[in-house]
Amino acid sequence: MNGLRLQSSGLIDAITRPEIGAWVEAFVDFITDVFQPVFDVIRAVFQGLYDGVDTILSGPPFWVIILVAAILALIVRGPVFAIGSAVGLLIIVGVEQWENAMDSLSLVLVAGLIAIVIGIPLGILAARSKAASSIIRPLLDFMQTTPAFVYLIPALILFRIGVVPGIVATIVFALAPAVRLTELGIRNVDREVVEAGNAFGASSWRILRQIQLPLAMPNIMAGVNQVIMLSLSMVVIAGMVGAGGLGGDVVKSLSRIDIQLGSEAGLSVVILAIFLDRLTASLGAGRKRGRRVKPTPAPGGLRPAPASSTTTTDSTSHVEPSGKPAPSPAATR
What we know:
Helix 4 (79-94) runs antiparallel to helix 13 (259-289) and helix 12 runs antiparallel to helix 13 (259-289). 80% of the residues lie in helices and 0% in strands. The protein has 15 helices and no strands. It is mostly helical.
């Protein structure tokens, strides 16, 4: 009887249990065998971008980068943010995490830039095509709900150990907000404004470039902010595959139970996160406020009359049915 139960349970498992893991493994092996030259090119491009950005950030003395960051913070947000940014970056220097911080910042900038370059066009496509949106949304749901560690397995197989798997995993993890918020911003543009552009004979490309994108810019900048934050949250996970930087020190502290190293690296990650978050949020707020357009004075210093509905009604109420203007009250007297 027990043997019959074991045979039946084994038969049920063979029938009902799909071999999803085996299928995925076979698919990854097929991609690796067929498209390995393509992945080698992608690896070389990503590695070159990372090396270039890291050279720019790590090459000059630390005080040059801090000065540039403080000036940028002063322009974008004000003196308080500039002083706070300089103090925070000096703390990173004081705990001897400057080089690791610049390595992690290079990874965040490269991965975030690639995610933005891919995500914003996809968001525009999803906003202008319902079919594209119905295809892109389930993919974004899958990317956002899949644990970030799962991205590292195929990335390691395709790109080998180093900083490139961390960049690829970061791009996949941080791509969704750029797509979603770009689509949301364009879809929320007032239809009457778009119809006015169509009425004036503007092309669809001109409407997108001069009407929809400027009005959707606050949402797009919010997406950029989220991409940067999600990219920075992947720094520690990227350190597990040999990306180095602050994530590498966090992984080392975890394996050694080194509280001092872990706290210093974690504090450096927090300082970078606050700086990047406030910086990108300020850029988005500046876009949202916009600029006021000053009215152009008429010749002779006279101000033009406001174009209100009352003025239009009064001017048209003195027109006779024949089309000739009615005589003024002074003339009738």
